[in-house]
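User: Predict Major facilitator superfamily MFS_1's structure from this.
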Amino acid sequence: MSEAPVSRGVYKFAVFALAIGAFAIGVTEFATMGLLPMIAEELGITVPQAGHAVSFYAIGVVVGAPLITTIAAHMDRKLLLLCMMGLFALGNLASMLAPTAGLFNIARFVSGLPHGAYLGIGAVVAASLVPVNRRGRAMSRVMLGLTIANIFGVPFAAALGNMLGWRSAYALVAALGVLTVIMVAIAVPRVSVGAGEVPSARGEIKALGRVQIILTLVAGSVGFGGMFAVYAYITPTMTDVAGVPEVAIPWVLAVYGLGMTAGSLIAGPLVDKSIERSATGGMILSALVLAAFGAFTHIAAIAIIALFLIGISGSMITTALQMRLFRESHDAPSLSAAMNHAAFNLANALGAWLGGIVITAGLGYRAPAWVGVGLCLAGLIVISIAIFLRRGGSPDPSTRTSVET
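Assistant:
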């Protein structure tokens, strides 16, 4: 890492540059879901088939996060950030230009490859620029780009797509990627990794073989998929079932973003009190809210309120599982952080895929919500097993930290 904390001005500029990249990633991850009907119409496919693009992006994250993190473990961090964001920009440019559904899916896969590694390494770089007692705050400020993306960026991309066509949204994201490359090149100090600062790839992979880590990742991959089963098809659901005008969809997406933000604020104190209760509580709340969404989607006001609550429960789940993974994998920090992003994007792929299956089967746009309930309950079972095993067994003392449960 860098030799010493930098000046406050340099730190703020660097974090801002890194947060722009997180903002761009947040926009591209969720914007596709608000543009599916337009994408489907122009490419001559069904909405569930267009939803495959969501899954391809998520699979790109699942593949890229551990692969890039492992291969580039000793690479200069600034250079790695520039390369990843350059690849991100190219992937989104290819998405904008794709003439067929197949090429569009490939472009989305490429766009997802740098997602997890950029966010993980960007947060670590930000933390390296400040004293130890301010590193958590530095990392959270980089991640703030994701939250702001869901409140402002995704709705704006949806509105831009409605006005200028869906390709304009990917042009916007590609431009943000190029801007991030420029900003990181100017603002972020050179950060290299010394030989003794990074565990070996073999050591990190071995650490990830622990039962608690595996169960936590599986719980995230399954349980968080409930939210994506609904959100992947939120535009046609709200327009066709709830009767919301298409021009109002950006505002609906903003409601979800506000729910995520509120959930992040709520989750912090709850996780500080109990990681385990926050994880199980988030899963239960998500299942209940998804059931309400499925039952009352035809009432626009209730559907929108439920979407806000889905955002809250989603943030509770991600925060709790992130902290649980951090606690259980303190000696495998780089790869576990990457795999955490991979797990949640696997949930993205799983939810979108299963939601598309029930829609294609003729069960309608309410059906993904019930799929989501099932996924949340499955995730609840997995995390409950993990908690039971941890309390009933005798964990390796090396896995214990000062983080209370």
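The domain at 1-195 is CATH 1.20.1250.20 (Growth Hormone; Chain: A;).
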